[in-house]
Amino acid sequence: MVDHAYEMLELLNREAPAAAFEEVVRKARESGMSGAALAQLTKARDQSLGVRALFVRRQQREAGLAALVDTARDLTLPYDVDALLKVITRRARLLLGLDMAWVALDDAESGCSLVRSADGHASALTIGFAVPLDGGVGKRAVDGASPFWSADYMNDQSFRHSKVIDEVVQAEGLRAVMAIPLRHEGTTWGSLYVADRNIRHFTPDETSLMSSLADLATVAIEKARLLEQTRYEVVELEQGTSRALDSSTTARRLRETHGRLLDLVLSGGGLGNLAAEAAKDLAGTLLVRDSAGRTLACPGAGLPELDETRIRTALLDAHTDRLPRNAGDGVWVASIAAGDEMLGTLVLATDTPVTDHRLQLLALTAQVTAVVLLMNQGMAAAEGHIRDEFFHDLLRGPSLSPTLIAEQSRRLGLNLDEPHVIVIARPEGGVQGRVAAWAASYANRHHGLKSVDGDLVVLLLPGTAAGDIARTAAKELSEVLGKPVTAGSAGPTDSPAGIVHLYQEARRCLDAVAALTGPGSSASPEELGFLGVLLSEKPNIAGFINDTIGPVLDYDDQQYTELIRTMEAYFASANSPSRAAESLHVHPNTVSRRLERITEILGEDWQKPTQALQVQLALQLQRTRQALNQERRRQNRQPISGSA
């Protein structure tokens, strides 16, 4: 038996086929082994086959992840949208060894989804084919905001069928079909489909792999659109520059410089070489930063000390107007942008006056740098879109399962099991392009998430002090805008499911702060006292009592005094120490000394109207809690009716 067990281990080590393990049992049976020995050998075979299957699954998972990485690298190349969709469908089909893949994007005018690219199709599914939105696995995937598949499409009645889709499935001879929704900023605008002409049950690893591919595909499509828009803007900027320049010689120099920078990028010169070359033409020191404010390149001499507040203010104006802005003291700022997305910042420091020609060259340099970042950042550029989409899902409530949330968090490098708070800011004048740009930059710098909801900026930020975090964010936004910013906050929570409740609580807190104090204030429910308890999704009565009169309760317990009872008598007698002394049957001087002790513990403001109201409410709540606890203990002591 021991020899046979070792033989099983040797087969595992050699990665032998499954039939080899069966052969060991067959030979043992033929040699006369039976009874308990044969049963143990059979068990060893089954366990060995289980280990072998585990190895196979891990190898398949590693191969799938490697293929996904190759796909991600492939999708970072600069394609136009149509060429990119062809790459996506082919990669999707090959990733799991399937027969067919296609991408259908929703079309608002026709009220259906149009096939934009297909790979492996025979004849029925052609480019431009209209896919109805009222049935099929695509509708189930969109409704559930997650992949949905059928092992045998035509014989599966677990979803609503569409006659048009069924005809195509039959014509193509398809059996297994999976749909993965393509989502951007809370909206599903299409689906990626993969299919096989055999019955096939997709494993969780395969489903997760296709979900990751769909995320990458969504970002790649958006990136391709942004890149096309960037190219268009560069052309427009060049044309506008040419018209604006009075001298043909100056125009030619600008075009030559721009062409030289593009050639440098296309030849693989890198961001550092691009910055160094541009700095020569700009006659100054050039600093390249990413969207989080980290330095990517700064060739040559170092920059002077920078006023970061003035730079942030100038950057938001530069991003909104798409023109370099003066940040003072010989410092100019340009936004590195692709469409509405801010990818980074160019900071130019110079001792000489900046001419229109240099400003135009700085703007062109920012556009070329945007192309470099789009090409080089790859997954990093994609992550911003995916993070925004993920935050939209969290704010809408439990549309995603805990498993999907955990998987997405892991992929994005987020740890939502750590405490986070929600901050909602409302700038006076509403949300404009520069406010959205600030929100993206602030979230990146503080390792959080952001969303723009109408006239509100919503931030999910790590930490526990909701009020302090809200004030810091509102102060910075107010400084860069030059306008008041009102903010409400809530938290912390260490559960993704609690984020939607914090969002609602922070909204109520924001409205309460605006009504009580007007624009420019910030607060959390804990800082609003009893009003915050009312606004809270889960009122923390004990916390309110402890924050308001907790030190006095502790003093009474430790010193065996009656300060709480004295406070109750004092308020009950309309703040009269003498009448309070009568009700307590003590000398008025005793009440006066007790009130002085309370002032030492709570501070001078505890008798002022606003604070006194909070103290009286806390005293009443504490008295009610004590009465309820006494009644509960009394009921627990009562004998059960009918007992001995």
Helices, strands, pairings?
Elements: H1 2-13, H2 18-30, H3 35-75, H4 81-95, E1 100-107, E2 112-119, E3 130-131, H5 136-144, E4 148-150, H6 163-172, E5 176-184, E6 187-196, H7 204-244, H8 248-266, H9 270-282, E7 285-290, E8 295-297, H10 308-321, E9 325-328, E10 331-338, E11 341-349, H11 356-377, H12 379-396, H13 402-412, E12 420-427, H14 433-445, E13 449-453, E14 456-462, H15 466-481, E15 485-493, H16 499-517, E16 522-523, H17 530-535, H18 541-559, H19 563-572, H20 577-584, H21 588-602, H22 609-637
Parallel strand pairs: 15-16
Antiparallel strand pairs: 1-2, 1-6, 2-3, 4-5, 5-6, 7-8, 7-11, 9-10, 10-11, 12-14, 12-15, 13-14
Helix pairs in contact: 1-2, 1-3, 2-3, 3-4, 3-7, 4-7, 7-11, 7-12, 8-9, 8-11, 9-11, 10-14, 10-15, 18-22, 19-20, 20-21
